[in-house]
Amino acid sequence: MNRIKFIILIFLSSLTAEIRTPIFLLHGFLGWGRDEMDNFYYWGGKFDLQNWLIEQGYEVYTLSVGPVSSNWDRAIEAYYQIKGGQVNYGVAHSEKYGLIQKPKGKFYEGMYPKWDENNPIHIISHSQGGQTALMLEYLLKMERVGEDSEILSKNYKGYIKSITTISAPLNGTTLTDIVMTSFPMTIKMAVFLGAIYDDGFLEKYYNFDLDQWGLSRNKNETIREFLIRINKSSAINSKNLSQFDLSFDGSMKFNQSYISDPNVHYFSYSTFCTKKTKDSNKHLPDLKMNADLWLSGTLLGTMKAPDSTWYQNDGIVNTISMSYPFRLDGTKEPNCEFIEKSIPGCWQLMGQLHIDHHQVIGHGFFNEDIQFLKDLFGNHCNILKGIK
C-alpha cells in the first residue's frame, strides 16, 4: 500500500513539474547577462534575484540581448537564446540595414528548447525590455514569405503566456529626443553612458554585443577605442538601434502595428521619483531619486514633451509612457486595474511605485532594499503561478 502511495506521489510531483511555466527576465537599455559585470546582477544588483526566485520554487532564466541594439535584433536574440540555434535576423531586415544575418558568435544551446504553444513562457521585463518583449510577441505571430529565419518563417501563436513590464517606455521616453537634440556632441544615445569608463569596470566585464554590425571588440582594444569605432560606423545613425526605438517617434511607429493578444496576460508597473514644482506643471527629482539620475530626471521633467502630463518620470522614462501602448490617433490598447485574478487580453495596471528607474531592480547609491525586491517580485511571481 505504501509503495502505491509513493508511486502516486511521484506521479503527481512529475505532473506539477510539467505544468510549471518558466519565467524569463528580459533586461533594458545598457543591460547585461549573468556572466557579465562580475556578479553585480542586472536583476537585483548585489542581490541575486534570479537565484532567490529559484529558491522560492520558480523556474527562472535571465536573457542577455544587445544592450544598445534595436528591439527587432534583441527579440530575435531572445528567441534563439530560449529555443536554441543560430541567430538569424532575417533576409529582408539584414539587407535593409546592412547586417551580418547570421553572426558566427551567436549560436545558443537553448535555455528552454521545448518552448512551444503547449509549453509557453512568462516574460518579466524592465525598461526597454518591455518594448523588446512586445516585439518578440509581434514577430512570433508574423509569418513572412521568403525568410529562412526560424522565428520569421512560421506563425507561433500561444508561445507567450504573460508579459510583465516594469518602468517600460511603451510609448517612448522623451530623454532620447532631448539628448539627441540638445546634446549632439555626445557619443549618441546608444553609447554615451558607457563612454566615461576607460580601463575600468566595463573594460573587463561589459560587452556591447554588436556582432551583427561587424563590431565585435578586438583583442587588446580598450573600451574607449571600441566606443570611438562604434561612433564612426554606419550603425550609429541607423534606425536599427535602441536610440530610435526608445524615442517617441520610434515607439509610435511600432505601436501603429502592434495589437495585444487576447490570450496573453499583460501586467505593467509604473515608477516615478519626481514632484511638481510650485509655480508650474514641470517636475523636479524628489529626495528618493538617486543622485546619478538627477540630471536626466530634471531634463525629463522640464524640457521637450508632448504635454505637461509627460513631466512626471523616474529619472529615465516618463511615467505616463509606462502603463500601456497607445497611438498618435488617440487609440490605445485595452487596459484595466488589476484586481485579484488576472484576465487575458487587457493591460492590467499594477499601480505606481514611488521609486526610481534603477532602484526598482536593486541598483542605487542611497538604498538597496532587498526586502522590497523580494516583496515585489515574489508577489508578482505568485500572481503568475495562478494563471492557468
What does the model show?
By secondary structure, this protein is an alpha/beta fold. The chain has a domain at 21-71 and 112-172 and 243-385: Rossmann fold. Helix content is 33%, strand content 13%. It is built from 14 helices and eleven strands. It has helices spanning 2-19, 49-55, 71-83, 91-97, 128-140, 150-153, 174-182, 188-191, 201-205, 223-232, 242-245, 248-255, 294-302, 370-385; strands at 23-26, 60-62, 85-86, 107-108, 121-126, 160-166, 265-272, 274-276, 283-285, 335-337, 347-354. The chain has a seven-stranded parallel β-sheet with strand order 2-1-5-6-7-11-10, with helices on both faces. A two-stranded antiparallel sheet has the order 3-4. Strands 8-9 form a two-stranded antiparallel sheet. α3 crosses α5 (128-140). The longest helix has 18 residues, at 2-19. The protein is globular. It starts with a helix and ends with a helix. Residues 5-18 and 184-201 have low confidence and may be disordered.
